[in-house]
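re: that chain from earlier
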Amino acid sequence: MGDIVDVIDRVHRQVGTRRVASGEAGTVLLRRTFEAGTDDVWGALTSPERVARWFFPVAGDLREGGSYRLEGNADGEILECVPPERLRVSWLSGPGTGFGEVEVRLAPEGAGRTVFELEHAAVVPEEFRSRYGPGAVGIGWDLALLGLGWHLAGGGLSPEDAAQWQLSSEAKAFVARSGEEWGRAFAASGADPETVTATTVAAVAAYIGE
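^ sequence. v structure.
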């Protein structure tokens, strides 16, 4: 459990909003440093074979202006691709979903280290936002960064092992700790304590199936 806590503590989290054409988008931002060179991290984000090893199988017209599809997760268009610095895509996670956009930014930090920053902005129904808060997407991205970190370190889990791990007490503890940290970030954005508590409980329960 110590390693899992360490992974969570390495991530800076921030919750905010920004105006887009279709309304007010909620944003979550994650930032952490990986012990890997920028080209290696970029390859892990853009090589279909590598993406499938830590995230989801990906298919599509994988170029700027093209489209992508993450199996069982999301799809969209590739809006911007500036190797090895920035990748921006639209993000649709289901029928009828509104504006969604994910941007990943990479910057070298000395030899063999990369600062990774991900921002996810989405316009979601108020009922969903008020029930689950930023943890609804934030916990998912924490899990993704956990997998990315394992992959960059030369490890990782097979899809079968990953499915089993998600049922483990370690995985549930990771999700709970992630939810708490997103609750802190939500509170820092100005949310009231009752809302923070209620949304944190709901988001964690949704991820662990309770």
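The CA atoms of residues 159 and 204 lie 22 Å apart.
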